[in-house]
């Protein structure tokens, strides 16, 4: 299972609402993520709007493509897009900046 980390930027004036939405993620969205290969998925929000995501997947591109084919993801992404800056017309699930892993304690990287 590969580990992935990514960043997005939440509009500072929308951070509280964004966090609130994630305290009540739709059950069907959670199930779709599980069904399409997203594991150990977490989001972290810094007080300046920096959003850091962590997910494990066999293949992130395949997991993203599988999610893109779900109806619930289309609804969720449409609702979440308004919270972000810098997406240039892409959805949040397409517009994140993937970070390179440079160290992992368990692998001695």
In CATH, the architecture is 2-Layer Sandwich
N-to-C SSE string, H for helix and E for strand:
EHHEEHHEE
Taking all Cα atoms into account, the compactness measure Rg is 14 Å
**CA-CA gap between termini:** 16 Å
Main sheet attributes: strand count, strand direction, barrel closure: 5 strands, antiparallel
CATH structural fold name: Alpha-Beta Plaits
GO biological process, one term: rhamnose catabolic process
GO molecular function: racemase and epimerase activity, acting on carbohydrates and derivatives
Protein name: L-rhamnose mutarotase
InterPro entries: Dimeric_a/b-barrel, Rham/fucose_mutarotase
Can you give a write-up of this model?
This protein is an alpha+beta fold and 109 residues long. It has one domain (2-107): Alpha-Beta Plaits (2-Layer Sandwich). Helix content is 33%, strand content 27%. The chain is built from four helices and five strands. Strands 1, 2, 3, 4 and 5 form a five-stranded antiparallel β-sheet that branches. It is globular and about 40 Å long. The chain starts with a strand and ends in a 10-residue tail after the last strand. The mean pLDDT is 91. InterPro entries: Dimeric_a/b-barrel, Rham/fucose_mutarotase. It holds the Pfam family rhaM. This is L-rhamnose mutarotase.
């Amino acid at each position: 299972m590969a580990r992935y980390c990514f960043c997005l930027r939440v509009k500072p004036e929308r951070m509280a609402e964004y966090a609130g939405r994630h305290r009540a993620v739709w059950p069907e969205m959670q199930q779709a993520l599980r069904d399409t290969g997203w594991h150990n998925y977490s989001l972290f929000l810094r007080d300046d709007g920096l959003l850091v995501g962590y997910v494990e997947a066999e293949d992130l591109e395949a997991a993203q493509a599988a999610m893109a084919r779900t109806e619930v993801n289309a609804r969720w992404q449409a609702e979440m897009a308004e919270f972000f800056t810098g997406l240039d017309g892409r959805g949040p699930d397409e517009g994140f900046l993937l970070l390179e892993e440079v160290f992992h304690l368990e692998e001695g990287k």
